[in-house]
Amino acid sequence: MLSPVIVRPVASYEDAAALDAAVEAVFAALPAEKQPTPASRVLLKPNLLARHAPDKAVTTHPALLRAVVAALRRRGVTDILLADSPGGLYTPARMRALYEGTGMTALAKELGIALYDGCKSVTVPAAPGGLVREFELIEPEVQRDYLIDLPKMKTHVMTGASLSVKNLFGCIPGLKKAEWHTRFPDKERFGEMLTDLCRTVQPALTILDGVVGMEGDGPSGGSPRPLGLVLGGADPFLVDLAACRIMGIEPERVPYLAAGIRRGLCPAEFPAQALDGDETLLRPAPFRLPASYGAGDTDFARHARGPVAWVLPRLERWAAPRPVVETAKCIGCGRCAEICPRHTIELNKTARIRPADCIRCFCCHEMCPVQAIQVKRLPLFRHL
Fold first, then answer.
1. What pLDDT is attached to residue 377?
2. What pTM did the predictor assign?
3. Do 35 and 75 contact (CB within 8 A), yes or no?
């Protein structure tokens, strides 16, 4: 039996009643054995990519967290911890600044919940049957017994979409994320790794913030996209399939969904019978895709025919989208060099990327605090 995916309209974050009703509907759809109890040690895992104010649509909005905490309190839960680990150095000072900048510090004081800044990690075996044998995870993910995944609905320059499954990459501590990009630099295997991670972490519940999402060069360099929706359910893959339908993104172009489809973890498209809500809410409202995706794939050789087919694989690396530093915007903070998996970025007042060594993970673009790193492709290939 398919796990239901709840979709509810929420016009704005100021509409507390609509947010509460949407979140309560997600909790109420859980079977009794999967409901949190007063004894549950709950971990809230929002998307706190970087220190951006909530109105920038980069991070999960505090108003959604407030509604989730209210639903937990109605169920007698008192032990609630909020934690995340963005890219870069994973230190208490960095985490406190992140919580402050994303509105989580004020929220925690208002609601009386704890924010994790211990910055410790634990190695655990990965779920069997995948590519990965073990994961190093942030400590609270291992110590807590009820994980609620709270992603933001966004496009993503590497994975096409940043949704429920991708949000769990924040369970990997700090700079350890760069190691996974190095081990799996191609999208397909990176998607397999994210699928392994999701199966290992196993969130009890997912609630997706689609009130205002992000389109374009997400997860941080795009534009806010008002959508007015909250989605949720127990199956993060099904939640993401529903989100992709709304965003107008083909699931097979999202590496971790493609991996889930291959493994039989989810169907190839969102099944209508799984919807709990008005079917008109699933009507596609296509998001503007990242420049790295263009009008199609960069794998030209796969579509080639005839005598030129042998030439195109040699052009692949040269023609693919790449991160480019806009030196006029660069403030020389070094965040890009810090996160780069292959250490291909040098600093001399401003950042410089060595193109020959770049694996196009776009971590630098994701972490730049002033959006000085853009995703570009050569003019000849922009419309392929």
1. 61
2. 0.87
3. yes
